[in-house]
Amino acid sequence: MKKAQIGEKTFEIEQEQDEYILNGQPFTFDLAKSGNGDLHFLVDNKSFQTKIISVNKEEKTVDVKVNNTPYTVSVKDNLDLLLAKLGMESVGQAGASDVKAPMPGLILEVLVSEGQEVKKGDHLLILEAMKMENVIKSPADGVINGLHATKGESVEKGKILLSL
């Protein structure tokens, strides 16, 4: 089962072999892809021209235009639904986390300090690797709980650089 949220409306979608069920009711659809990435759906004999604008894999959202009207669709799969049922929906989301070196390199600059609040996407460190400067950004909103790397330090891939 999958759940899709569009505005205040929630849709439950299930597939049982060749049959699709939407909110407990069977439905039929046909899909055609055009060369420019647009999709054309025929759902229960109603036509929908759809264009995917953007996909955010981290937040599991898709911005689409359906018949030229924009929508943001939030999608939950079986794992998301199971985690929510177990009260663990925040697993893998923002919260206490470690920021690790994505590759071996040299810490050129530490741009934050312990106790500092950061927002998702804020610059945390500059890591030189393969003669290129790489900005390490915050994966989530939070507070710097610990710095584990210093300016001038050589680090290996996977070393914890700081904790949020």
Compile the SSE list and pairings.
Elements: E1 2-6, E2 9-16, E3 19-22, E4 25-27, E5 29-33, E6 39-43, E7 46-56, E8 61-66, E9 69-76, H1 78-85, E10 98-100, E11 105-110, E12 117-118, E13 123-129, E14 132-137, E15 142-143, E16 146-147, E17 154-155, E18 160-163
Antiparallel strand pairs: 1-2, 1-9, 2-3, 3-4, 5-6, 6-7, 7-8, 8-9, 10-18, 11-13, 11-17, 12-15, 13-14, 16-18
Description of the molecule:
This is Biotin-requiring enzyme. Residues 91-164 form the Lipoyl-binding domain. It comes from Reichenbachiella faecimaris. InterPro entries: Biotin_BS (IPR001882), Biotin_Carboxyl_Carrier/Decarb (IPR050709), Biotin_lipoyl (IPR000089), Single_hybrid_motif (IPR011053). By secondary structure, the chain is mainly beta. It has two domains: 2-85, 2-Layer Sandwich (Glycoprotein, Type 4 Pilin); 98-163, OB fold (Dihydrolipoamide Acetyltransferase, E2P), CATH 2.40.50.100. Helix content is 5%, strand content 54%. 9% of the residues are buried.
